[in-house]
Amino acid sequence: KEEAIMKDFLFGVSTSATQIEGAYQQDGKGLSVWDHYSARGLIENGHTCYTTCDSYNRLDEDLALIKGLGVNSYRFSINWSRIQPLGSGPINEKGVAYYNRLIDGLLAMGVKPMVTLFHWDLPLPLYEAGGFLNRDIVERFAEYARIVAENFGDRVELFTVFNEPLVVLDFLYVRPVGGGDAVRTNQEVFEGVHNLLLCNAAATEALRKYSKKKIQVGMVNCTQLKVPATNSAEDIEAARAAVFAI
Q: Is the pLDDT of residue 6 over 90?
C-alpha cells in the first residue's frame, strides 16, 4: 500500500511567471499590472519585473536545473499577457510557443507539468478597466482559460486556476502594492471576491470542456491555522481573529 502511494506521489517545485521569466516586452508580450508597478517604482527597493531570472531566454538551462533536482512535478504559471497581450482578442503565437517548449521539455524528462492560470499578473488593460471589480472580467477569464486548454490541454493533466486568491485581492484592493493605488471599500473588496470566484468557476468549466485529456483542476489557497494557547474565551477569540485576518 505504501509503495502504491509513493508511486503516485508528486514531489515537485514551483515558480510564477512574473518572478522568473523576465522578457517583459519580448516577442509580443503585453504589459501586466506588475510591469505597471515596476514602471511606477512601487516594488520594494526599486526592484522591477523586467529581467528577473530571464527564464524566457534561459529555458534550456532551467529545464536542466529542474532535472538535476530529481523532482517528478513542476508547477509554473502562464503569464496571461504573454499569450494574450491585451487580456482579450488576438493570441500571441510566440508566447504559446514558449510554453509549448516548457511543457514538452518537462514531459521529455518525465516531469509532470502543473499549470497555474493566474499568479497575480493581470493584463494591464484589464487592470485599467477595473480588474476584478468589473464583472466583464469573468468573460475575459473564461476566454483565457479556453485558449490555455486548446493549446496545452492535450498534454497537461493538472491545472490550478488561481494562486492564492486572497493575496490577489490583498495586493490589488486591500493593501495595494507600494501604496500606489487607493484602498478599496469593504463593499468593493467583497465584489472583487465574488467576481474572482465566478472567474474560477468559468475557467474550470472551460478547462474541462476544451482540454483533450482528462484533467484535474483546483486552486492554490494560502491559509493559516492558529491554535488557542488556552481554553479561555479570550485566547479562543484571539486565535479566531488571527486565522481570518488578512
A: no
